[in-house]
Every structure is written in structure tokens, then in C-alpha cells.
Amino acid sequence: MSASPRAVLMVRVVPRAARSALARDARGGLRVHLTAPPVEGQANRALIALLAAALRLPKSAFTVIHGARGRDKRVRVEGCSEAGLAQRLARALESAVDKA
Q1: What does pTM read for this prediction?
Q2: Is residue 29 part of a domain?
Q3: Domain around 11
């Protein structure tokens, strides 16, 4: 019996942004802008919804494992290897740049 692949994503969240979007910061880290406020888990739910849509995975694949109440978060992604996650993220960021 083999365990399903999983990866961990390090994210810096910017709540109450003008629009929801994925971006890279100056150091190459993932920055996620969310229109949702950081109140009663709204930003965490918006983060999971945005990541699921951008990475084309179900919302149930994402779990905030660290930083639920802060801006810096670690998100576990079930059913996706580190390499697969990196490819999906690169495609999502490319399409985000194309739309800008």
C-alpha cells in the first residue's frame, strides 16, 4: 500500500487586496493576493478556493497546516508530488502574467 503523493506550499497572503491573484515576490516566493478579509477564516477559505482553481485540483486537496491566523502559511497539497506542484504552479503563474 503506497501513500498518495503530497507536497507543501509556502505562501505569503495579502488579504483585502483589490483583486485575487497569484504572484511571485522579489525573492521568488509565492504571494497570493486575496480580496477576502482575514476575519473568521474568510481569507483561508478564499486562499484554498483560489489555489484549487489556479492549480486545477479539488479544494479538498488543500489543508492549511501552519499559519492559519497569520500571513505566512504552509499549505499541504494531497494527490500532487513536489515536481507536479511546481509544474502546475509555473503554468498558473504564466497564465496570471498573460492576463495582466
Answers
A1: 0.90
A2: yes
A3: 6-99
